[in-house]
Amino acid sequence: MAQHTNVKMRGPRFFALGLAVAGALAAPTARAADAPRAADPPRAEPTIAVPGAEGDYLRLLHRDIHFRWAVQFIEEVAAKRPRTDPLNNLKLQAEVLFTVRWDGSPAEVTLSESSGNIDFDHMALVAVKGDRPFPVPPIDVYGDDGVAHFRWIFARDFRLCSGGEVRRVEASLAEALPRLFVQGRMKEALLRVARYTRGGDANAMSTFARAWLSRPFPDPSLDARAAAALARAGDTRQTDRLRPALGRAETATVAAPALAALKVDLCPLIKPRLRMTDPEGMALAARILVAAGTELPPASPCVAALTDLVKSDGVAAPLRATLLRTLAVVSPAGVRRLALGALGDSDPHMRAAGAETFARPGGGRPTLYRLQPLIKDASTEVRAAAAAGMIRACGDLADEYVLPLFKARESEPLAAMAPELGKQTSAGSLDLLAKMQKRNNPELRVPVLAALAARTDAAGRALYQPAAAAVKKDPYASSEARRIVYATADVNELVPLMKDPALGLQAFKSLLRAQRHAEAMDWLVGSFDRLPPETLIDAFGAWLANPPTHTASKP
Predict the structure, then answer these.
(1) Residue 426 domain flag
(2) Given a cut of 80, is residue 170 above it in pLDDT?
(3) CB-based burial label for 5 (10 Å; 0-12, 13-18, 19+)
(4) Count: domains in the chain
(5) What is the per-residue pLDDT for 185?
(6) Per-residue pLDDT for 147 more than 90?
């Protein structure tokens, strides 16, 4: 910032400004010209070195204050007053506290520490008040009362008016954040949190995350996601906020696992929907129970209701198939007989659901013999379910039985098998994945890539690595493929990709798991204004799930 110490004003404007300080500068005129001039200190005024937006604004303030203080006052004192004059005492120093409003106008200008010289103190106040507003303050420097607070030191020595700083007039985060949110000052609040975190407060970002997620969202889907994020972090107060979300199809599957995480029994909440006269209610109840993923006791009324509905001819076959799959989730031990009966059902939806729910890991040859006829079923859905079930239950025993599916052009049965092959470690199962990979079918690329990424055997990893490298090099690779490949990437490989829309959140979570919270916070603060609400909800939820175990600091 250019200094104005050597600037001289001439002409009528200088005369007018001189009248404002005439009282302070009055001196014996007979000997003023002959009086020896006070020696100017050889040292230059220090620069304001505060970084960031705060420092930028302090330097803007200094630009205006410096002209009024150093040029209009100090230089005139040095030029017109003798060296022995009290105003030329290099030990003089005054402190002024003041605020700047949203429009740049100074307010509440007060002398907080006197220099002992009334004229010196007066001119320090004049240097702040000026005759025009300051630049409008950035949000980084505002206090909780909506104005920016400053402390400024005015010195007679070489320091002049370089001693400016922001005064933080702030309540505790828990008290301040709701007020800042209501005022629409969210980014300002986040910047404060970042400052607190860098200062050593390891809980500041968690406080912000809870406050941000706790506020009501106008969009029901976003509100449910926010409540779910808090529930997963153990906030039991979200129960009442999540219960209404169970009644909406677009939010039920978000609310269900969150309520389950809080140990809420969902059966009483959805049991009224399990009625033959309410097909939509039955379908929604099934989605809720599957999303919750919690086993129910055998005596649960929901287990009994699901069992009766699966057996009922009054329920449409596709819905009965859905209810059978639901029963396999909430009561896996009690579904085997129903699943076995479904294998011979006349409806393909029921046969597919039967194959899916009957096949359990370790089923061996008895399961193989039950499912093998369905490999030739007329329904693609049934063939896909049977093939996946055979791999899941029988492992390598099923290989020769599913080989005929590789001769067909359809990809659905192969795509259904891929996740199950990803759980295996045998050479035979890897050979089947290799055959799928060689087909170069667009519909199989992502399922096969995900299956190879899941393999833990050395041969499987060897087949996966070149496929993953190809995805990383391909600028046209799908976002899903890239997420699969980078899901297990080293954090140092992910950090350079944080600006990638598809991978930024993934890299953020990786940093959290690595306890590199300072870098994760920098990304969150820098991306806050451009990230969609659903991504921010996920990010703040991830922070609460992986809080710092120590003060955040950059390595």
Answers:
(1) no
(2) no
(3) middle
(4) 1
(5) 80
(6) no
